[in-house]
Amino acid sequence: MRNSNKPELLGSLRILERKKYIEERLVKKINENTLILNRIINNICNSILSTKNVIKIIRLVKTLKGILFYIHFSYPLKNKVQNPLKNTSFLNKNINLIKLSTEELAKNSKMIQNFRLRFKKESSFTDILNDKIHTYKAISLPIKNYYYSLMKAIDCFSILIIIAETGAGKTTQIPKYLFSLGYSKLGTIGITQPRRIATINVAKRVCMEMQASMGNEIGYSVRFEDVCSVNTRLKFMTDGIMIKEVLTNPTLNNYSIIMLDEAHERTLYTDILFCILKDLIHYRKDLKLLISSATINYKHFSKYFYRAPLFQIPGRLYRVEIYYSKESEPDYVDSVVSTIFQIHLKRSVGDILAFLTGQDDIELTKEIILGRMSSFNYKENEFTIFPLYSSLGFDAQNKVFKKTKHSRKIVLATNIAETSITINGIRYVIDSGLCKLKYYNSMTKFESLIVKPISKASCWQRSGRAGRTSDGKCFRLYTINTYKYILEPIQIPEIQRANIDNFILVLKCLGINNIINFQLMDNPSIESIILSLEQLYLLGALSEKGILTKIGRCMNEFPLKVNLSKMLMTSEIFKCSEEIAILSSILSTEDKIINFPKNNIAELNNTLKKFNLLPKSDMIVYINIFKEWVKSTFSHDWAKDNFINVKCLVKSRYIFEQLINIMEKINIKLITNSSLNDNQGLVKCIISGLYMNSAIIRRINIFKIYSNSQIVIVHPTSCISGHITDWIIFYELIYTNKEYINVNTEIQPEWLLELAPLFYKKSIY
């Protein structure tokens, strides 16, 4: 029924409104059919058309023929827009060609080419369909030879598994192909990566090749950093960020296609995405899912994803020669250093990438290299050494990708350099065969980083770093028999070896309550699930019946471990929310805030005394250091004079600002602890999140963990070292040749009973 309140338009005004309405419908129709035109019409000689596609083309030609009439004759021929094909001779000729092409594609390629030419000649609407033409930088990569068949496969299947060798171009080129074909018109194209550094660098690479501006059509989003806008149509993100989007938008209706890159890494969040997107494909028939990797167990993945087909891209851009050690190396750090100098002496050109286990070994290796350089009278500019590990600041990480003048670049990296990043100039890779992985011990109920042999899949990922920009060589510091008979084909998925508290909390927030029977690609042990459910219940995230509480939902808003999130949730009660936000920021960097000089320990101890108030606590020291740095107006000189790691402080400041925004969002007031000498409320707040990490003294520097009776040693760098106190709370349990506890705080046993009565009994006295 017509709205009587609306004035009726007459004469020319009504005609203009009608014309505007038709134009809007035409624009909408053009946008809807852009993808089909670009994919089928412009590339018809490379397409195998099904009956369904033929019908689509018939409808498309009808619509576009009408648009052509409308544009040429304007409004007076509006009837021809609505019923355009009174004369169908042009249409019938071309439909016959299309149908013929489905049956005899190879024989009739010339006829199809004629069709394309006539279609282009008679249809002058090509410019209308492409409101913006992108010129991409031409790159000769193996994937380029499979462009048409790959795009056809993506069009035909809702789920597609893509395996391409390292250096084939899948990570950077597939997003560009999807964008150029118009998938971005139907919704955002999402690409996930397991690691932050890979996400940022891939986004920047694609942005450069497409000659676009970062943050506009192309953007990236990682933890604590979002470089996207409302105009972003090609979005690179970590898998954790994708999970956050699922929580706020369960149907992901703003996405047209999602690509899970480096799927072989099998992080906790990647496994959740596998399960969510597998089910979502049934609900959203228009959504497409691509699962890509260079090394993947295809049969295992295909079985899980409804027998999804495989698209394989063989061939790598450059050749890589593999060399094995004749015998096992007892000291892998010394072997890495020796191999670096042998390469430098024998090979004239090319940079070196060495894979080590962690930050400590990287710093030790750098120290040894510099020491040998001075001993053997090498020039200072012969080597430029770059460390690369996850807790390193992004600016420092980014230096790895810059060219060095007149010197050989040596990159000392952890396994974060295995996938999705290209360091130009690398010709030699030194593979130690080792890495650090998170393992959760259900007996001790603690997670730790343990040095383990890598998998065969990781071996090939590492060797592939040498063949990205030229032919290369990979020196494996283990025997060929070790590779054949000891290394596993793939690494154990993180879900079966790591702490899954955050994983369970995310599933609960997604409304999944039957965790034990939840069908994942690989399920964690029932024991691990039960321990995590118990932990979340004790933290208040779950009710007695296992239902998500309001506290649990708010805890999931923070991109932190569940114990740090719990501390933030209770910080307002103890009137120390600012201090806890500072502490959580520093601990989240997973970096050392204090630089411990080898030859100046006495001066360091004197400097730290001013930060160390009662009760004795490394955590309070960290908070006071941050506050003093703020008072110094973020001075780098102040940090250097006080033996403080300014990179850690800079990262902490950025994280702190992000946490404050989240706290405001969930209505946690920012309150500062007003008393400098009374930190009882602050320590109680720390206990609320770390109550399970308590230990009782056995003798000086020797403690017994309450929950599992494990004997541990106070780390020498802790302010508790040498101090006699009955009870402490710790944050880190470090496994080396001994078991150390670090980041410790002195506590009173009655506080444990007060804050965790379900976990502790009166027997603690």
Automatic annotation (TrEMBL):
Query: What processes does the entry annotate via GO biological process terms?
Result: mRNA processing; RNA splicing
Q: Say which domain of life the source belongs to.
A: Eukaryota
Q: Which GO molecular-function terms appear in the entry? A: ATP binding; hydrolase activity; RNA binding; RNA helicase activity
Q: Which Gene3D superfamilies match?
A: 1.20.120.1080, P-loop containing nucleotide triphosphate hydrolases
Q: Read off the InterPro entries from this record.
A: DEAD-box_helicase_OB_fold, DNA/RNA_helicase_DEAH_CS, HA2_WH, Helicase-assoc_dom, Helicase_ATP-bd, Helicase_C-like, P-loop_NTPase
> Domain Helicase ATP-binding: where?
151-314
UniProt EC number: 3.6.4.13
Q: Give the record's keywords alphabetically.
A: ATP-binding, Helicase, Hydrolase, mRNA processing, mRNA splicing, Nucleomorph, Nucleotide-binding
Q: Where is the Helicase C-terminal domain?
A: 339-511
Provide a GO CC annotation, any one.
Answer: catalytic step 2 spliceosome
This enzyme catalyses:
ATP + H2O = ADP + phosphate + H(+)
Checking PANTHER family in the record gives: ATP-DEPENDENT RNA HELICASE, PRE-MRNA-SPLICING FACTOR ATP-DEPENDENT RNA HELICASE DHX16
Give the UniProt family note.
Answer: Belongs to the DEAD box helicase family. DEAH subfamily.
Q: What is this protein called?
A: RNA helicase
User: What is the scientific name of the source organism?
Assistant: Amorphochlora amoebiformis
Gene that encodes the chain: cdc28
